Amino acid sequence: MKKKISEKCNDENCPFHGNLKTRGRSFVGTVISTKMQKTAIVEWVGWYYLAKYERYAKRKSKVKVHSPDCINAKSGNLVKIMECRPLSKTKKFVILEVLGQEKGFKERMEARDEAKVIKKEEKKLYGLDIVNEPSKEELKKQSEKIEKIKKEDKKKQEEEEDATS
Ligand SMILES: [Zn+2]
Description:
Blueprint: E1 22-33, E2 39-50, E3 55-66, E4 77-84, E5 91-101, H1 105-125, H2 136-164
Parallel strand pairs: 3-5
Antiparallel strand pairs: 1-2, 1-4, 2-3, 4-5
Bound molecules: zinc ion.
Zinc ion binds next to loops.
């Protein structure tokens, strides 16, 4: 890993200017959030083997990564990340370099936001309250409620089908 980086930074956990060693796995992914300080969320799609079905399936992976100041990664950037020692409870990757910009990133995020709205509307449809920041328990309760209603709907449908056939 030899790359010339002229800019300086005072980040102790920078692989170029600090003393953070990298080892282990390395991936290329897209930065989807940089809201946290010196931390970004990187997402990529990979193929995973599912033993049960004896085939490969696409899965998304998402990790928190350390984002040193000198690299200055932004949302939508394609970045190379590499494993390092755990920097916090959930952070054990660091960005090594920005490779470019993901094509159609903005559109992808917009589609994702739209999907969120649809989910909200679905909740409304089933008569559930929407609170601004629901707790985990509340979310669990709500999803259980939706599942229950969905199951009942399915049952009803099946009964109707049985009656007509
Ligand atoms: Zn640096």
